[in-house]
Design goal:
heterodimer, A: alpha+beta, 4-stranded mixed β-sheet, B: alpha/beta, Cytochrome Bc1 Complex, Chain C, 2 domains, 4-stranded parallel β-sheet, 9 strands
Chain lengths: 167, 524
């Protein structure tokens, strides 16, 4: 009799537990991106130029070095920041510098930016500076796109593949 | 923190009281959280093995193979997939409630630090296993998880190249990635099993299986849920499209929405600090290490009962070192001992009948000596009057019975009721120190020191050494496992017990008078 009572008790108690598990296993839904908007992603990794120009060691300096350590050029490891400017329909969406990675700042700069935009026809212009120059840009890319809502548009950059790559 | 703990404990005990009514103490899931965790783990493993047979590790094949299982083979693969998901969710619930409950009940201090500290990393493992599982489906939820997880890792300063970049274009994704995920999804639970074994390593008789009836009940619940609401994939992943809205599993992914507003590195720091905080809880004030049990070799005959009854495997039997004729002696491992005194209750030399001037058993607690227990027993009984005098033995982890001390009821407390040698009950009744002995402590099935109530019940039922002597009238022994919150029921039970004692005394007086009359008639 007691056992039957407890079995019934189990059934009653497990119903809300099952409902809780069943519900929270996939609900409530979560919106992390406005469904009415498209997304532009600027994402690439790029090693910029070294901060200082290489110079040739003098004969005296070479003589002072251990024979196995002698090399003709003295190059600093540190690279300059990568600067990017992204314009859409004449409006600035992004203008930012990205420092090189690594303790000695000698690694590639990693860029990963997501920018929600209105869907529709857009003129995109993206510029990149990876040298010590004070003004101007080393690379530039332009593209005309027609974005749907929730569409992802990726701006990639590869120095050895003609610079900017739009997908 | 003390107030929080007391609040949590009281809350747990009230809820558990309700569950005791619904499930009965034996099947109460709150007393079986760890065992239920194990049970859910095995359901996840068995259902996962089945799914693995059919899972295809390709960019498009992964999704298709699960769709086949869910729709074409719904009666087997679909059910297994649902069981896999829901048992995993239930496992998270069990782990979190188990952790909260052990904290509330203060079951992490002293030698219990080991179980606590080995349990905390399992939180990371179970989440890693669950997240990698959702990743493998390669639907829109998986796409969201993949990108968000990769972004989370990218926020760490260790990675030069962005990992998240791999999930921006389909062309960058290969089937090898799914092979890697399968490896992670199998390796992490395997490592978790290893940690689960370590977690219970110091427990004697660990509960790794829930009672059969509870196991059947909870499995039936998962099975019915699997039929009623089968686990489904969301739309297939398409890296060109942002899913925008996803149906999250909130048991495994509650951190992910936070990542939309808070930087990854902040989340990492918060999670790591929270883990460190959890790890150090056993050493936080007001922690006080009570002196561990001591062995008195002069009185230890190497019977092994203390070692058999110790709930934390703190006592081992080693070859004799004092030249005695006995072969073995008890040795206490101070790192494992929680000073519960259950070993003292098991020691046959811990008897108050001993007439030696120095009552020193083979094993005892330095701060709760057995001689003091006898003195307290005698002192508490001396104040009692009437024909329903009761001596209550209680434990320090449940309600404080000292508050009920009056002319008819005396109280003696100890760290755990399992510390009470049955000979004390015989001592009280045979020396007529009281008319009855009433035992109380933690709630049935939930002894704070795991096995105190179990061994006490078994000793009183003469099922486990040391037995209570047969001459003891069991009608004069009462018990109610009150815990912290059942003071009302405790008083009701105690009152009923005293009424029984009155009736018993009356009956015994009448019987004695009748036998006296009949013997007088015979004489005439």
């Amino acid at each position: 009799m007691f056992k039957l009572r407890y079995i019934l008790g189990q059934i009653i108690a497990f119903i809300p537990f099952a409902m809780g598990i069943g519900y929270f296993s996939d609900s409530p839904s979560y919106t992390y991106h406005d469904p009415e908007k498209a997304l532009i992603m600027v994402s690439f990794s790029h090693a910029s130029e070294h901060k200082d120009e290489c110079r040739r060691f003098s004969q005296e300096e070479l003589s002072a070095m251990a024979p196995n350590m002698r090399r003709p050029m003295d190059c600093s490891r540190e690279r300059v920041p990568v600067y990017i400017e992204l314009m859409m329909d004449g409006q600035n969406l992004l203008s930012q510098s990205y420092n090189p990675t690594g303790l000695a700042k000698d690694g590639a700069a990693s860029i990963y930016e997501s920018i929600p935009v209105e869907p529709g026809q857009h003129e995109i212009s993206v510029k990149l500076r990876d040298s010590s120059r004070e003004s101007g840009f080393d690379y530039e890319g332009n593209v005309s796109i027609n974005l749907d809502a929730k569409e992802l548009f990726v701006i990639d950059f590869r120095k050895d593949h003609n610079g900017f790559n739009f997908q | 923190m003390l107030a929080l703990k007391l609040l949590l404990r009281t809350g747990f005990e009230y809820v558990e009281d309700c569950f005791d009514i619904i499930f009965g103490a034996k099947w109460n899931p709150f007393y079986q959280l760890g065992a239920l965790g194990w049970f859910y783990y095995w359901i996840v493993v068995v259902s996962g093995l089945y799914l693995y047979i059919f899972f295809d590790t390709g960019v498009t094949q992964a999704y298709e193979s699960l769709e086949y299982l869910t729709h074409e083979q719904w009666y087997a693969g679909g059910i297994m997939r649902s069981l896999h998901r829901y048992a995993s969710d239930a496992l998270v619930v069990m782990i979190v409630v188990h952790l909260l409950r052990e904290f509330a009940m203060d079951r992490f201090r002293s030698a219990r630090w080991f179980a606590w500290i080995t349990g905390v990393p399992m939180l990371w493992l179970v989440f890693a296993a669950g997240i990698s599982g959702y990743w493998m489906v390669w639907d829109q939820l998986a796409q969201y998880i993949a990108i968000t997880t990769a972004e989370l890792f990218d926020s760490l300063p260790f990675f030069g190249e962005s990992i998240a970049r791999n999930f921006l274009m389909d062309s960058k994704l290969s089937g090898r990635f799914f092979t890697l995920m399968v490896f992670i999804h199998i390796a992490v639970p395997l490592f978790m099993l290893f940690m689960m074994w370590i977690h219970i390593l110091r427990h004697a008789s660990p509960k790794v299986n829930p009672p059969k009836e509870l196991a059947i009940g909870t499995f039936s619940m998962l099975l019915i849920l699997s039929f009623v609401k089968p686990a489904l994939s969301q739309a297939p992943a398409d890296l060109k499209i942002i899913p925008a809205t996803v149906n999250l599993d909130w048991f495994y992914l509650p951190v992910y929405p936070i990542l939309n507003d808070v930087s990854g590195i902040t989340v990492w720091i918060t999670l790591i600090l929270a883990t460190i905080f959890l790890m150090f809880i056993p050493w936080m004030p007001p922690g006080k290490k009570t002196p561990v049990a001591e062995v008195h070799l002069d009185n230890c005959n190497g019977c092994s009962r203390c070692a058999a009854d110790c709930p934390f495997s703190a006592i081992s039997m080693e070859p004799r070192t004092d030249g005695s004729n006995y072969k073995l002696e008890a040795v206490v491992d101070a790192d494992h001992c929680v000073s519960c005194g259950i070993c003292v209750g098991a020691c046959p030399t811990a008897t108050p009948f001993r007439t030696k001037s120095n009552l020193s058993p083979g094993i005892e607690l330095p701060e709760d000596k057995i001689a003091e227990l006898r003195e307290k027993t005698i002192a508490a009984s001396e104040k009692l009057t009437g024909d329903d005098r009761v001596l209550v033995y209680g434990c320090g982890k449940s309600l404080n019975p000292a508050e009920i001390t009056n002319e008819e009821v005396g109280v003696v407390t100890m760290p755990c009721i399992g510390m009470l040698p049955p000979s004390f009950i015989d001592f009280v009744l045979s020396k007529k120190l009281a008319d009855g002995v009433f035992l109380t402590g933690c709630r049935d099935g939930d002894c704070s020191y795991r096995l105190g109530i179990k061994w006490t019940d078994a000793r009183l039922a003469s099922e486990r050494d040391p037995h209570i002597r047969k001459r003891v009238n069991q009608d004069r022994i009462g018990k109610y496992w009150a815990g912290l919150t059942r003071s009302k029921q405790f008083f009701n039970e105690l009152t009923a017990f005293r009424q029984r004692l009155k009736k018993l005394s009356l009956l015994e007086t009448e019987t004695a008078a009748e036998s006296k009359q009949s013997s007088e008639k015979v004489d005439v």
